[in-house]
Amino acid sequence: MRLDAVVVGSGPNGLAAAVRLAQAGLKVKVFEAHKEIGGGTRTAPLTLKGFKHDVCSAAHPMGVTSPYLKTLPLEKHGLKWIFPEASVAHPLDSGAVALLTQSLDETADRLGRDAKAYRALVKPFADHAEELMAGAMNPAAFPKHPLLMARFGVAGLRSAEHLFKKFQTAEAKALIAGCAAHAILPLDRSLTAAVALMFLVAGHIKNWPVAQGGSHAITKALAAYFMALGGSIETGVRILSPRELPPAKAYLFDTSPDLLANHFADILPARYVARLKKFRYGPGIFKLDYALRGSIPWSNKDCLKASTIHLGGTAAEIAAAEKAVWAGEHPERPYVLLTQQSEFDATRAPKGKHTLWAYCHVPANSTVDMSGAMENQIERFAPGFKKTILKRHTMTAMDFHSYNANYVGGAITGGVSDLMQLVFRPVARLNPYTTPNPKIFLCSASTPPGGGVHGMCGFNAAETVLKFLK
After folding, report:
1. What angle do CA 411, 413, 419 make, to 5 degrees?
2. What is the CATH number of the domain that holds 261?
3. For the chain, how many structural domains are there in total?
4. How far apart, in whole angstroms, are the C-alpha atoms of residue 419 and residue 391?
5. Potential cystine with 366: which of 23, 397, 398, 413 (Cβ 3.0-4.6 Å)?
6. H or E segment at 147?
7. Residue 112, CA distances (Å) to 93, 105, 116, 124, 166 in order
């Protein structure tokens, strides 16, 4: 079959690119190095029989707000979203819990004397959430709503520390800090406020969902739709040189930039390759998966309402932990992101049992086991948690790198998303999805808008390819 396009990598971005090209009538083939498709959305029995664990991503706030993914008939191909009562719970030592729910008023009212300030900060963006998401998910293009994006830019360019210091209550400060820490940046850096705002607004569109049966359902649905459009997928094929690519008009790489820099330097200018090699990937993660004999015994039962728990105590504690990671340290009290999918999806574990998914940030290339520090953080807010553990599965930063070559040094977001590398990723170009070779394109999380299961890097790259092939 004569191919119009080849996509290397079958994560959400690679498959979104493939689907968009196939929708336009192109002949497209996807190659995947792993034996299974999915990239960061695979699900596997990592602990005990009957327990389904998400190997990488778990809750998907951007999966349901993605301007492209929400247009696709993925439900017809087996994807079912499950929505909890709340997106985020952030417990504190006082016993209080900050709760992010779809209702902006409910979220604000729980913040007491900070209710008015929260509404003033978030409501202007939540009221225009779809327009905001569309602009933020394609930052390389001129926005359709420039005044809204300009207002967001003014608010988001600040640091999260600057943002949460404007609040009085520990709950409001912690809620902002926990959302900002998804950036995997020190919270005194510019743009961490933007990350906090995006996650807060996403929570007011819909509560952060999980995919029934596991995150793999997302890419399985994408793949099924892609093949229904006439596309083809080949797994177990690692592309490591131009000679291994079949003839096609365009090649899209859902990979980290170092694949091109290390294996395709012969067909790219030396200057461009040198710039790719300067791309910064940032810290890695250490991840734990558990089979549990019962629900997590949270001190405050409101935690059971949320798909995602942010653990780390106060905003100041979280800021200190994230700063330590960037200094090359492994914090004794790490910031922990935890998802309890089985509380909402009964298919994840045997009846009466539960799964737990959690990770913390660590320096790049780390091989340190953070199990003890993470379990202490969970036990801090859920006394008796350790007694519920049936079995644990660990992955260090270097385990992640070995599992998926895109996770360079254990970095899961496609590279640092600071002021320099948010739009200009992986290098500064008028169109970030192009390369100096007119047939080679990048569509991974190392292009705008960056990490997350939203498929927009792939969609934006595919739109570029379609213009190129006209």
Report:
1. 105
2. 3.50.50.60
3. 1
4. 41
5. 397
6. helix 146-156
7. 17, 11, 9, 20, 14
Q: Please name the residue that has the structure tokens 């596309």.
A: 231
Of 420, 421, 324, nearest to 363 by C-alpha is 324
Q: Which amino acid is at 372?
A: G
- Nearest by Cα to 75 from 231, 229, 220: 220
pTM of the model: 0.96
Rounded Cα distance between 241 and 267, Å, is: 10
Please give the residue range of the domain that contains residue 428.
Answer: 5-44+61-80+212-280+405-469
Kindly list the distances between the CA atom of residue 294 and the CA atoms of 159, 181, 354, in Å, as whole numbers in the listed order: 39, 29, 6
Instruction: Return per-residue pLDDT of the chain as tens, 470 residues.
Output: 689 999 999 999 999 999 999 999 999 999 999 999 999 999 999 999 999 999 999 999 999 999 999 999 999 999 999 999 999 999 999 999 999 999 999 999 999 999 999 999 999 999 999 999 999 998 777 778 899 999 999 999 999 999 999 999 999 999 999 999 999 999 999 999 999 999 999 999 999 999 999 999 999 999 999 999 999 999 999 999 999 999 999 999 999 999 999 999 999 999 999 999 999 999 999 999 999 999 999 999 999 999 999 999 999 999 999 999 999 999 999 999 999 999 999 999 999 999 999 999 999 999 999 999 999 999 999 999 999 999 999 999 999 999 999 999 999 999 999 988 988 899 999 999 999 999 999 999 999 999 999 999 999 999 999 999 98
**How far is Cα 40 from Cα 409, in angstroms, rounded to an integer?**
15
Q: Is 147 inside any structural domain?
A: no
Is residue 34 within 8 Å of residue 402, measured between CB atoms?
no
Q: Residue 294: CB partners within 8 Å, gap ≥ 6?
A: 352, 353, 354, 388
Other Cβ atoms within 10 Å of 463 Cβ, number: 18
195's tokens: 């990350």
CB neighbours of residue 78 within 10 Å? 15
Query: Tokens 């008023």 map to which residue?
Result: 105
Residue 453 neighbours by CB under 8 Å, 6+ apart: 12, 40, 41, 57, 60, 62, 63, 215, 218
